[in-house]
């Protein structure tokens, strides 16, 4: 089969409806929207465009399923997740190709995301039977204290386009493990991967109503009424800080439990004692994984002044070798950005940095070809007040600044409202411990450019969010703690 035929055949097998109460349907008003290939601008598929009425039907299904699902034995929920893990492994090539087609990242990276996403299914299948409580005597001996956990209840999950599968499984898997029902609203730019995955969850045996999926181009119109409805108990969002804080304000009406994984502005700090080979390799990962379209992407390279010239030269040489192209082509290392607006934003940040005094060591422009491509770019001498040092770049641009001592590096790292992740390169263990105590961050990568791991608590501080996804902490986001005080006259003191 030719590549084009294989892609067309995969699209034919991918569901394009809304998924409510265990069934695929057209949107209530029959509307659809177009999903584009960012490498060509071509239309890949038309997908049902859920309306507010579909939203209400999804919430009614999730609410009706909640009680029965909450009382399903945890072993049963665990086994559904395990079957889903096996199915994702079997269909990983389909999922990876679909992801590359709608999101643009190179196929090798999509395969990496499928494996990463699948680890959340495996991890939380193992966590489901370990939900536990405690039993204790009160200190005065008069009562017994029972502490137990129960599912929060129907949850709304809003996921971004940059990791179309991993950001969904990172929310769905712990919710399934905890016994919550849910409504997923995948990003309108990349709904196909989520829809294909939904079919696998159904094949794995997830009962009707537990997972409902609503692709839509009207996110506010569909999710707003859900957030105000007392049947919803939880909102989990991954996306920008601006949207996250609006959602938090809306969630305060019903005092919803919220988990927010928001924007970042990650510093990547290279100290004078760093292993330079490792620092450059880590910089490539932290900057160019996902084409820079990640909230954990290195946004500011802070490099000690004594090694800045060497680091910048080596990073420039390495980034110059990245071949740009459609993600399905075998030698592509950097795919397109997601859309024209993303290209315009990256171009503005580069232009403003240059106007503020930065020097272009590599690239600096969008590519003149169909699709939404931006050259791998390195800027040196970036002033700390430049907009590129303040805003999330979300593109393949490395912006290098310098510092002269550790105190200055920490102050620079902490100087933004964000605190998702920091990366540091040093061989000095005492320095690592000082940094771990002083950097305002939810995650710290030490001599590594990637921190993401299903077994670890992912999340930020300050304007980067609230709550943690993955690790032992991830399931707690979907559990309430209930305390039962037992006074029994026959127990005695
Ligand atoms: C993100 O950038 O939103 C998540 C990245 C990750 O999980 O590695």
Q: Report low-confidence residues grouped into runs of 5 or more.
A: none
Q: Could you say which small molecules are bound to this protein?
A: succinic acid
- What portion of residues belong to β-strands? 15-25%
What is the CATH superfamily classification of the largest domain? Aldehyde Dehydrogenase, Chain A, domain 1
Quick one: how many beta strands? 22
What gross morphology would you assign? globular
Largest beta sheet, briefly? 7 strands, mixed
Attribute tags:
Aldehyde Dehydrogenase, Chain A, domain 2, 2 domains, seven-stranded mixed sheet, binds succinic acid
Give structural notes:
- This protein is α/β, with parallel strands linked by helices and 493 residues long.
- It folds into 2 domains: 4-262 and 466-480, 3-Layer(aba) Sandwich (Aldehyde Dehydrogenase, Chain A, domain 1); 266-453, Aldehyde Dehydrogenase, Chain A, domain 2 (3-Layer(aba) Sandwich), CATH 3.40.309.
- The protein is built from 16 helices and 22 strands.
- The protein has helices at 3-13, 52-70, 74-90, 92-103, 107-127, 166-178, 191-203, 219-227, 241-251, 276-288, 308-320, 340-355, 387-390, 406-413, 429-438, 473-476; strands at residues 18-20, 23-25, 32-36, 43-48, 134-137, 144-151, 155-158, 182-185, 211-213, 234-238, 257-261, 266-270, 298-304, 359-362, 377-380, 397-403, 418-419, 421-425, 443-446, 461-462, 465-466, 479-486.
- Strands 14-15-16-13-12-18-19 form a 7-stranded mixed sheet, sandwiched between helices.
- Strand 12, helix 10 (276-288) and strand 13 (298-304) form a beta-alpha-beta unit.
- Helix 2 (52-70) crosses helix 8 (219-227), helix 4 (92-103) crosses helix 5 (107-127) and helix 10 packs across helix 11.
- The longest helix has 21 residues, at 107-127.
- It is globular, with a radius of gyration of 24 Å.
- It binds succinic acid (SIN).
- Succinic acid (SIN) binds at residues 162-163, 166, 238, 294-296, 452, 458.
